[in-house]
């Protein structure tokens, strides 16, 4: 624990404390085999975050939490590994694995330094996991190391625009004003929240992904349906219908021909 970077230590303590609040969503996620993403649960049939064919693919979920995303991947034939920084989140994941009879490897650790060899995976994915809570300068190159040439990185996180419009108290809704500088965003700590988050501008994501060895395939602005609902306080449906509150990135590790099945 003491040799973990400071932000990883802080986030471990926070997520261990908060894990109980994520059990109900975890149970819902594991019960459903119809993936739905993020704050407004936008269906996979609209977002297409998963590669078309997952059968037999090696996939790692970086910051898997309660691992419902991993359960969807496993049900689609992927050989899944989930890594998460919180033992409490993983305890929920392990219980749900037993209850649903779906088994895959779960690692308690930091997604910035994953105990797996180079080029072990075809796909790396993160939904509000490492992509929000780990240092991008560490987890993105680590994802590149873990992926085989031609492998795909997919992640979903808060949008750059929404982060610019968030009041300091991040449990109130995003405004329609720019409330913080867009340059040099990086590490963000909200005054009423003990965790450490990381947010980048689009230019900074592109630059980091490219210098880590990725080509960018898509940046998807997520838009909920007019009747969507959310349990989160930090954005209203009215806001999210006008501006993207979440963004999904798809990037491909350079170095080999793209496999048609990915
Ligand atoms: C919001 S959950 C994401 C999981 C799930 N998709 C969800 O939305 O509930 C965030 C997870 O990221 C994990 N996390 C934070 N920092 C991490 C790190 N450096 N390495 C691995 N996991 C990390 C936390 O422990 C937490 O379980």
Cα gyration radius (Å): 17 Å
Q: What is the strand content? A: 15-25%
**Category from helices, strands and their pairing:** alpha/beta
- Major β-sheet annotation: 7 strands, mixed
What distinguishing features does this structure have?
262 residues, 11 strands, 23% strand, globular
List the helices and strands and how they pair.
Layout: H1 6-18, H2 23-31, E1 36-37, E2 42-43, H3 44-47, E3 58-62, H4 68-75, E4 79-84, H5 87-100, E5 105-108, E6 121-127, H6 130-133, H7 136-146, E7 147-158, H8 160-164, E8 186-188, E9 197-199, H9 202-211, E10 214-222, H10 237-242, E11 246-253
Parallel strand pairs: 3-4, 3-6, 4-5, 6-7
Antiparallel strand pairs: 1-2, 7-11, 8-9, 10-11
The structure holds S-adenosylmethionine.
Short overview:
The chain has helices at residues 6-18, 23-31, 44-47, 68-75, 87-100, 130-133, 136-146, 160-164, 202-211, 237-242, and strands spanning 36-37, 42-43, 58-62, 79-84, 105-108, 121-127, 147-158, 186-188, 197-199, 214-222, 246-253.
Describe the structure.
The protein has 262 residues and is an alpha/beta fold. It is built from ten helices and eleven strands. It has helices at 6-18, 23-31, 44-47, 68-75, 87-100, 130-133, 136-146, 160-164, 202-211, 237-242, and strands at 36-37, 42-43, 58-62, 79-84, 105-108, 121-127, 147-158, 186-188, 197-199, 214-222, 246-253. The strands form three sheets. Strands 5-4-3-6-7-11-10 form a seven-stranded mixed beta sheet, sandwiched between helices. A two-stranded antiparallel ribbon has the order 1-2. β8 (186-188) and β9 (197-199) form a beta hairpin. α2 (23-31) packs parallel to α4 and α2 runs parallel beside α5. The mean pLDDT is 95. S-adenosylmethionine is lined by residues 8, 11, 15, 22, 63, 65, 69, 83-86, 89, 110-112, 127-130, 133-134.
